[in-house]
Amino acid sequence: MFKPAISLTILNNINMTNKIAKKTIFLTLVTGLLLLLLFLPKPLLADAPSTSTEPTVPYDFRSDTFDILHTHIDADFSNFTTKNLIAHVRLDMIRKSAPAPLRIDLLKFTVDSLLLNGNRVMYTYDDSQIIVSSAYLAPVGDTFSVDVFYRGTPTQIPGDWGGFYWNTTYAFNIGVSFTENQHSFARCWIPCFDNFTERCTYSYAIQTDPSRRAVCGGMFVADSLLTPTGRISYWTLNTPIPSYLASVAVSDYAEVKSTLSGSLSPIPVSLFARSTDTTKLKNSFLHLPDALRIFENTFGPFKFPRIGYSVVPFSAGAMEHACNISYMQAAVDGTLSYESLMAHELSHNWFGNLVTCESASEMWLNEGWAKYCEYLFT
After folding, report:
1. What CATH number is associated with residue 301?
2. Which of 138, 177, 262, 352 could pair with 348 in a Cys bridge, judged by C-beta atoms 3.0 to 4.6 Å apart?
3. How far apart are CA 243 and CA 246, in angstroms?
4. 117, 109, 70: which is closest to 86 by C-alpha?
């Protein structure tokens, strides 16, 4: 009577052992391949024939000449009817080397004025770059500030993955474009050096109407209510990041707060969604603590001040903005069906955010390690 049951148990144990063995072999092979490619000498890689039709993006020498130390973003997203952004961004910079004009990326806005150390100076703007003559700039080794005042509708190219999305309920950026070269795409909403190598700290003062709130990368500082005209949300991020990882998401958000035990210290967690989605959000992120534990045990401490996700009506995955991951609404369904996506984006805090590729041709490293992390998590 018990033979079939005993046989079935043995068979199940064998099947489980085979699955574990196959998964172990797969993860070992993936790890070995990634490490081999990561440490393979560049000349060997350069000798390989390329079949890519993507144009080569020349090295951006601006970061050898100027260093952006801090970016402060003062932006008004109150007008959801016209979707017109009114903004003032200050770049605190240092000049590192010999004379060269200052070129600041900004895509298709109206630039009203530019101040250098508080004084108006001449500039040119071609809908792609603001150029300031080297004659106006500080000597080598000196710090200076550039204030850009601008307005317009942020760019979202039809058919592109990234850009700035703005509908009647949400406004948010996705910091990578797959149709533009270079792929980093912060220039669709802020003045910046739009490359993967320039890193700086950020602060935000984002105005919305009273019914909405702005969520940005970093730590929340305060809300200032301008009743009845609006609300200003202040955020700050003291960990330097590339411009494509800077972020904003605006909606009538509710916050789900918690704290996780990190290997160095407690880590605050902020999950933002509209109130109708918060219960599903909690259920879909049930294993977030497990993902953090696995990645810290494998790769070391989480180095950012906050774990943050903001739910947005994005239909093609998620974007790993530092401390404020833009996470597609369809993945917040109250089940665990998409938790590998949750883990994938969290892992970018080690691969992509903390350590960033130098150019778009190396983005596969960011994504390859994050894909590997999905398997570690599951």
Report:
1. 1.10.390.10
2. 352
3. 5
4. 109
Parent domain of 124: 60-250
pLDDT given for residue 350 in this prediction: 97
What's the length of the chain? 378
Q: What is the phi/psi pair of residue 35, to 5°?
A: -65, -40
CA 38 vs CA 109, 264, 289: distances in Å: 39, 28, 29
Decide if pLDDT at 264 tops 50. yes
How many whole angstroms separate alpha carbon 246 and alpha carbon 255? 20
E-strand stretches of 77-120 = 85-95, 102-105, 110-116, 119-120
Q: Are residues 240 and 373 in the same domain?
A: no
| 129 SS3 class | strand
Coil vs helix vs strand at 11: helix
Residue 43 counted as domain residue: no
Same structural domain for residues 246 and 256?
Answer: no
User: Same domain for 341 and 246?
Assistant: no
CB 136 within 8 A of CB 109: no
Partners of residue 328 on adjacent β-strands: 312
Task: Identify whether the C-beta of residue 324 lies closer than 8 Å to the C-beta of residue 318.
Answer: no
Count of domains forming the chain: 2
Does residue 116 register a pLDDT over 60?
A: yes
**Residue 53: inside a domain:** no
Together in a domain, 121 and 204: yes
58 falls in which pLDDT band (50, 70, 90)?
low
Strand partners for 93: 68, 144
Q: Name residue 88's beta-bridge partners.
A: 74, 149
> Does residue 284 have a pLDDT over 90?
yes
User: 154-171, pLDDT tens digit by residue?
Assistant: 999 988 999 999 999 999
Instruction: Say how far apart CA 49 and CA 46 lie, in whole Å.
Output: 8
- Tokens coding 337: 């069906």
For the chain, what percent of residues have pLDDT higher than 70? 84
Which residue, of 250, 277, 297, is where some domain finishes?
A: 250
**Among all chains, which residue has been given the structure tokens 């005993």?**
6
Provide the whole-model pTM. 0.85
- E-strand ranges in 153-184 read 163-166, 171-174
Q: Who's near 35: CB < 8 A, 6+ residues apart?
A: none
Gap between the Cα atoms of 339 and 355, Å rounded: 23
